[in-house]
Amino acid sequence: MWGEYVDATNLSPRLWPRASAAAERLWSDEKMTSSVTDAFPRLVDFRCRLLRYRVMCTSIWVEEEMTLLSSPVSLYSFPH
Fold it and tell me: Glycoside hydrolase family 20 catalytic domain spans which residues (predicted)?
């Protein structure tokens, strides 16, 4: 996995949620994975399983957080 904000300290926590989303899409029936709304509970459940096994993983929706961190700030507020 490559990215501007990925290094040895956060590779594993970012990799597993994304890998589960890719696996969901690649190995499941297309009818089951065509809706993000339907897939989201399964991905959340998988993340909870990882945490139960003490596998550190980030939130599924980290892109919004990273956008806020890297976006320009104007007059001490983020553009929305």
Answer: 1-29
Tokens of 47: 């993340």
Angle 35-4-40 (CA atoms, 0-180°, nearest 5)?
15
Q: Which amino acid is at 29?
A: D
Q: What residue type is assigned to position 44 of the chain?
A: V
What single-letter amino acid sits at 30?
A: E
Q: 18-51 burial, b if ≥16 CB within 10 A, otherwise e? A: eebbeebeeeeeeeebeeeeebeeebeebbeebe
CA atoms of 39 and 28, how far apart (whole Å): 10
2-47: pLDDT as tens digits:
677 777 777 788 788 888 888 888 888 888 778 878 888 888 898 8
CA-based nearest residue to 46, from 12, 19, 65: 19
